[in-house]
Amino acid sequence: MDEKKEKLNSDEMYEELEQSLKNSGHDFDLGRVRAAYDVAKMAHSGQKRKDGSDYITHCVAAAQIAYDMGLDEDSVISALLHDVIEDTNLTHADIAKQFGTAVADIVEGVTKLTRVQYTSAEDEQMENLRKMLLAMAKDIRVILIKIADRLHNMRTMEYQSEDKQRTKSLETMEIYAPIAHRLGMQRAKWELEDLALKYLDPQGYKEITQNLESRMTELEAFMSSMENRIQKRLKEENIESAIFSRIKHVYSIYRKMYSQKLDMNGIFDLCAFRVIVDSVSDCYNVLGIIHEMFKPVPGRFKDYIATPKPNMYQSIHTTVIGAEGIPFEVQIRTWDMHRTAEYGIAAHWKYKMNSTSGIREGEEDKFAWVRRLLESQQESDSQDFLHNLKIDMFADDVFVFSPKGDVINLPAGATPIDFAYAIHSDIGNHMVGAKVNGRIVNFDYVLQNGDIVEIRTSKSAPGPSRDWLNIAKSGSARTKIKQWYKKERREENVIRGREIFENELKHAGLAPADVMDEDVLPQLLKRVAYDNINDLYAAIGYGGVTATRIVNRMKDELTRTQKPARSAIEKMNEAAERREQQAKKETKAVHGILVEGLDNCLIRFSRCCTPVPGDDILGFITRGQGVSIHRTDCTNCKKSLEQEENAGRWIKVSWAGKITDSYLTTIVISSRDRSGFVMDVATVLNGINAKVRSLSARDIGGGMALANLTLEVKDLDELNYIISRLRTIPGVREVLRNGTGTNLSSEKEKKG
Ligand code: MN
């Protein structure tokens, strides 16, 4: 729009800037600003712009724009100095020394943005670039000065090569105009868009501007007649107002033509009116009057006063149709709202400037405010790129470049490992080194916004190290590393996993045996969703699951379904205690008999069945004579068990482990009655050293004799041996123990 030849003298331009500062009503330190001008002029001396003017003119122009935006003194100074770090010998330290670190930081910030190379044109990439720029600019003034810089460069773009015009315009359209919009800077946004369109679609731009020019007289007549009519009416209603009219900016017409597939003649509402009043209540009064004067177009009324846009914009919008049938838009707002609409976020400094302390106060507060603004933008109803806008300028993300110029978005604190895996798992798995901005860095280097990251790979790389899991910041990198371990290192994982698992068991007070029990293990594995124990070890080994988690689940399962899990130590103690008690009982055993639940009770061995160690036995609680011990196959015992009144008196008894006593037992030998029979028995018993207590024989008639033999034996084995030897004696028919079968003698004895 600005067609003036700008081959200006920088000093004259500076005088103009100084005049604006003087007239601003704010307390600009003119000496400090002039010092900045002098330093910049000196530093850039000899440098020329493409149009032939001194480079410093660009710096002064940018400073003027910054001032016009409403920025503060440090911003104006920073704008003057914005290219000295990039293009001259001056350093951050030099600037900090003379103008303070705030200015030096801003200039350095602008320099960093300037160094960012935009090569990709993918949509997603553009959004990442916008975010990257916002993230890089730790101080919002960096972005605002960058916009001022870009605006001036766009205004003077005609001197650049066609190629440069195109790339710069694309950047402007895709990155800087959206950022200006995001920051609520309508004016800068419009101008950037129109200038960019001029180079991106010269034909389209020309068509619109020429059409507008040809209709200018008509449009201007229309606008001034409307202005007058509205003005007159508002005066009658005693409303103080200022009315401005304008032709809509080129790019907005251009977009409308394309989105609605109209040609220029189909676009009617080319004009917009703005009514600025003193109070909010006047805004609504004006709205009522306008709607009374003209027919409103349904669905075009928007009240951004009641519901401000996320970028703080407030106004009432309505579209009406004039008497001539031409629709036009009216925006109604207060002066405060107007300033915010024009300068957006920059207007913030205007408010702040009114307080004597300037903007230095409450740095924190300022950021919070910006953050709120940007965060709230995701709820925007705006149809353009504002969807999908979760921007956190200062915290959660870092944006870096691949060598090809793609912007990779990583979590703050990310390392080259995260970067490598973000590109591709293969890159990560074969990574052997990393370079950032051309320099070799360690794998734990923390990436900074705007870094260019290059990963060196090798086919023979050993694969990710386990340390990487601690270094990587992004979940996706960690997942990919774990996947690699899962696949490539199963055996190692199993061994490692087992070790970790068993350690964890120990911590949890469990022994491997508790879990490995073949009755229990399948159930435990089912509970933690693994098919077999090696799969589980492998998973723990590669880090797919934590041992703590698994062991806790297993513990739960054990508690739920089994006896309470006992520690190895508990178990050991219990076993020891059991043995000890066993040992105690043995000393308490009477005649080698343990009676369940009773210590030291009186024991007798029944004479009816004379049990010996090795016999199955039961105890009968007698009245006053202790426990009488019977063999379970004893006839009396069996009979007694069938009698109800005795049932409760039978108790379990057992032989003690170690028996040193010997026991008396009786056997009965039936034989043919022959001479020498008793002699033969005695000879056999003597031959095997049996300890005989008594032996008696008698004739029972029918050629048969019966011998009762009472022996002292150690146990059943010895007894059985003796019995087997007795059976070899000629004439012997049967050798039986007493108490079983037809044992007349025992019956007799009992009765006796
Ligand atoms: Mn510049």
The rounded Rg comes to 52 Å
State the major sheet.
6 strands, mixed
User: What's the mean pLDDT score?
Assistant: 81
User: What is the class of the largest domain in the CATH system?
Assistant: Mainly Alpha
Q: Unreliable segments (pLDDT under 50, ≥5 consecutive)?
A: 350-394, 742-752
CATH topology of the largest domain: Hypothetical protein af1432
Architecture overview:
With 752 residues, the protein is of the alpha+beta class. Strands 1, 2, 3, 4, 5 and 6 form a six-stranded mixed β-sheet that branches. A five-stranded mixed β-sheet has the order 12-16-14-15-13. A four-stranded antiparallel β-sheet has the order 18-19-17-20. The chain is built from 33 helices and 20 strands. Mean pLDDT is 81; it is low at 350-394 and 742-752. It starts with 9 loop residues before the first helix and ends with a helix. It folds into six domains: 3-200, Hypothetical protein af1432 (Orthogonal Bundle), CATH 1.10.3210.10; 203-348, Beta Polymerase, domain 2 (2-Layer Sandwich), CATH 3.30.460.10; 395-487, Roll (Ubiquitin-like (UB roll)); 489-561, no CATH class; 590-655, no CATH class; 663-751, 2-Layer Sandwich (Alpha-Beta Plaits). Helix 1 (10-23) packs antiparallel against helix 2 and helix 25 (521-527) packs across helix 27. It is elongated, with a radius of gyration of 52 Å. Bound molecules: manganese (II) ion. Residues 58, 82-83, 149 line the site of manganese (II) ion (MN).
